[in-house]
Amino acid sequence: MEKPIPRIGSRSKSKRIGLRNKKSTRIPKIPKGVIHVQASFNNTIVTVTDIRGKVVSWSSAGTCFKGARKGTPFAAQTAAEKAIRTVVDRGMQRAEVMIKGPGLGRDASLRAIRRSGILLSFVRDVTPMPHNGCRPPKKRRL
Question: Could you state a single Gene Ontology molecular function term (predicted)?
Fold first, then answer.
C-alpha cells in the first residue's frame, strides 16, 4: 500500500490563527535609562532612551502647548513630566540626564525629572561649544 502524502499548509484544528502570543504582548522592564533634554529658545524636547540608545518615550513642549508658550519653563516642565510618566510605569528607577541647548526649559525640565522619583546618577551638559568655529562673514562696506 502507498503511504498518504501529508498536506502542507493545511490548517489543523488544534492551532488557532490570529491569537497573539503572551510573550510578544508583554512590555519589557527598563531598570536604567538616559534622559535627553534639548532646550532651544522656542521649544524643549525631552527624549527617554534605554542604555543602548533605543527611544522608549519622548515629548516636546510643542505637543503640549502651541505658539509662543512653547518656549516657557512651564511648557518644558509639562513635557518632561509627560515623557517620564510612561517610563516610570515600565519600571525605570535610575537614569542619566543629558542637557543640551541654551533655552529656558533647562532648569524647569531638570526640576520635573528630579520630582518624578527617578534616581539620577549624573547630570551632564552636552551643549556643543565651538573651538573658534566657522569663519565670520566679511565686514560690510557702505
Answer: structural constituent of ribosome
Q: Name residue 13's amino acid.
A: K
Tell me how far CA of residue 111 lies from CA of 58, 99, 103, in angstroms. Answer: 17, 12, 15
CATH number at residue 74: 3.30.420.80
Q: Find, among 139, 140, 100, 92, the residue nearest to 118 by Cα.
A: 92
Model pLDDT for residues 17-66, shown as the tens digit of each residue: 555 555 556 678 888 999 999 999 999 999 999 999 999 999 999 998 88
* pTM across the whole model: 0.75
The reply to whether 119 falls in a domain is: yes
